[in-house]
Amino acid sequence: MRKLWSLVIVGVLLLAAHPASRAASSSSDWPSLGSDAAQSNDNAAETAITAHNVLKLKVRWTAPIADVSYPIVVAGRVYVPMVSHAHIHVWVLDAATGKRLSVIFRDAPGGMLMVGGNLYVAGRYLQEVDPAKGTRLSRIDATPSTANGVFLYPVADQKLLVAGYASLTPGASASLYAIAPGSNQVLWTVPSSSAQGAIGSGRILTQTARGSDFYDESTGKKIATASRVSSDWFAGDLLAYSVASIKRGKVTLYAMDGTGATIWKRAIGPAFRSTYRWPHALDSSAVYVQTLTPQPGIAALNPESGSVLWTRPLADVQRMVLANGLLFVLTYALGQPTRLVVFHADTGAPIGALALSPGYYAFNADDGLMVADGMVFIRAVGPHGSQLVALGP
């Protein structure tokens, strides 16, 4: 295991100009896809990893992981999807050591979510599970259910739990279910071609056949349609963001308000047929995105105006995460090592990079990069198949 990780420094260590970080917290979580319902890829609670110690992280353990579904991290535990008897179940691992603590035998091919202290696993049903005992507390059924139908991508904020539902049968329709946490009552459903929603500023945002629709979170009423803007959404304090290519045009980052009006837009790449899971992260200070034009790299943009705060050249970006004032960027290309490159989020000043040993490659996977509980977790494929690689102090 120790041979898996080697250190590569990429740039000057710019530490003196930055004050010491706050005292480390006992735990910081990554409880759902993209860290939260807004799909921000921002862990605001993380304080243990700092600019002073990030390059000292080492591989502490690795564990196999299923290619489908995705992991989450809560209260010092990592919940990892695993294949067993042709089903996707959940292994519960100690975040610091990787020791397997238990197995939750509940089908979870569509992802998982921790909310209110309970685990939700998405599959043929959306099941609420006691994470300590693995026993089912409740089950939510699709109405109507469809052949080969599964729940997908559950997320939740303080008001709603939202999960997609889709059939694996080609051409079948998909939808979003809005569910009241606690009672697990289905409040309403709306069409969704992606079976995935982001929640921000009282709106639920999802792809549809015509582009994207905005729904009022409280009522489920459709507020607006963003025609031809068909891609995944993420949301900030005031605006919502999507990376899309319209009519074979350039890949563009769109920023829209709650009425569906475009506040600003910025071209960030050439024409693409698909913009699935475009690498991004955001907080109240900036929107961070991968750019392919005018050069491959990353850009920090003002979230309200789209003005450029800083840019840095960087090729082959796979995922981005924000934590404790640091921007973590996962990169990989054929013939190149998988690298974790770290920047100061406010200035873009490079701190350095860590590289996995040859033979491991990363990909743009769901929760392919997480920073939580003083650890960094990377989904990679190595000599023994798909792995979750855990870095810690």
Write a short abstract of this structure.
This protein is mostly beta strands and 393 residues long.
Structural features, described:
The relative contact order is 0.16. The strands form 8 sheets. The chain has a 6-stranded mixed beta sheet, with no helix packed on it. Strands 3, 32, 33, 34 and 35 form a 5-stranded antiparallel beta sheet that branches. Residues 1-26 have low confidence and may be disordered. A hairpin with a 7-residue loop joins strand 29 (326-331) and strand 30 (339-344). The protein has no helices and 35 strands. It starts with a strand and ends with a strand. The protein is mainly β and 393 residues long.
The 3D shape can be described as: globular
Which regions are unreliable across 5 or more consecutive residues at pLDDT < 50?
1-26
Give the beta-strand count.
35
Taking all residues together, what is the mean pLDDT?
90
> What profile does the largest beta sheet have?
6 strands, mixed
N-to-C span: 15 Å
Helix content: under 10%
Secondary-structure class = mainly beta
Major β-sheet strand ordering: 1-31-30-29-28-2
Rg: 20 Å
Total DSSP helices: 0
Portion in beta strands: over 45%
